[in-house]
Request: fold
Amino acid sequence: MSTKISKRIASAIINSLSAGVVPRIGIDNVAVGREKEIKSLLQNLEDVAQKGAAFRFIVGNYGSGKSFMLQLLRNQAMEQGFVVADADLSAEKRLAGTNQEGLATYRELMRNMAIKNRPEGGALVSILEGWINKIQQEVAKETGTRPNDDRFDDYVETRIQEVVASIEGLVHGFDFGNVISAYWRGYRLGNDEKKSAALRWLRGEFNSKTEAKSALAEVRVIIDDDTWYDYIKLIAKFTADIGYQGLLVFLDEAVHLYQIANAIAREKNYDKLLAIFNDTMQGRVENLGIFVSGTPKFLEDPNRGLFKNPAWQRRTKESRFVKQAGMQDVFSPVIRLTPLNSAEIYALLQRIADVHAVNFGYEVKLQKQDFQNFVQAVENRLGAEALLTPGEIVRDFIGVLNVIHQNPAIAFSQLIRGADLRLTSNKDDAAEFSL
Reply:
């Protein structure tokens, strides 16, 4: 690592990776390889910032680095001035359903909405009030008035209504604009109840129109399972209009859509995803990027994956010529993650060792040969050339580092030689290795 990281970040990285999850912070400190893929995804960010849109699948087996890629892109996007929102799909959080599963995904995205100065999520209030404060500063500078002057709030409201007016022509834009205006009026009058009601509406927390109308007189509808994606598009437009680069949505664990047992429910979710894909790829939406991660079966299984629908095959199937040549097209709608090579694994282990040492407060004593021996041990596993995943490698290595730290008398090479390496498989038929 080029710079020494803090104990807090090191601890977050080691704890996350040990548990098999992607760190929320400090991820750049353990990122290696994937340069072509990252460059391609960063090009998508440029497109979104220029009033374009993007939709990308990141596909790979369990532990291949899909979630890692999404998190890395999420963090880089915040640095570039995007609003980001992420959600892990599950049995309760889907794109469509009969029990508000789509709305549950929207609510999760809103809870996890983040910006550079609020990276942990829950950034909706910061976005709205930062925008209002910015307008107030601009009005004060341009008009020479101050917040206590009679005309000051009127000038501010005029500027706010200009943004609202640009949204009203979109689907559901009128109601969305009314809620933004309601939040401003609550802010202007110091009415926390009105502000809270507007936030609840924007977060999709009202369960009925009657409930929403009672709390917020300005609205006629609520965000629900059928309309939640329309409001994602509105938020993308709104955030771009108020000075952000746009909105990026990250949907992880799309394999849960593949695992829906009911065929009709599964197809309904796939159809919703196709509508979103078409919207972004055909240029019908601005300043919005959608990034979805899933396993190869989720995409390519002809019986229950996306490829069951010929429309999905036409849009996402890999070029036969590229496939025959053994090449990778990282600018296609689907990025397929390939195994890390030996040099990348070596670099990854070095970074993990550095972070582990910071976390537990010791000096790294491993030699170059130790890293090489571990890489060799990993590569010697049956089928490793096709099945190595960063997740499995990292968990194995951290486990070894933990044991060595707890038992200083045991040599690294001794532990590696004594390891019983065996091949196992998980429920998705993606191979894993364990000690």
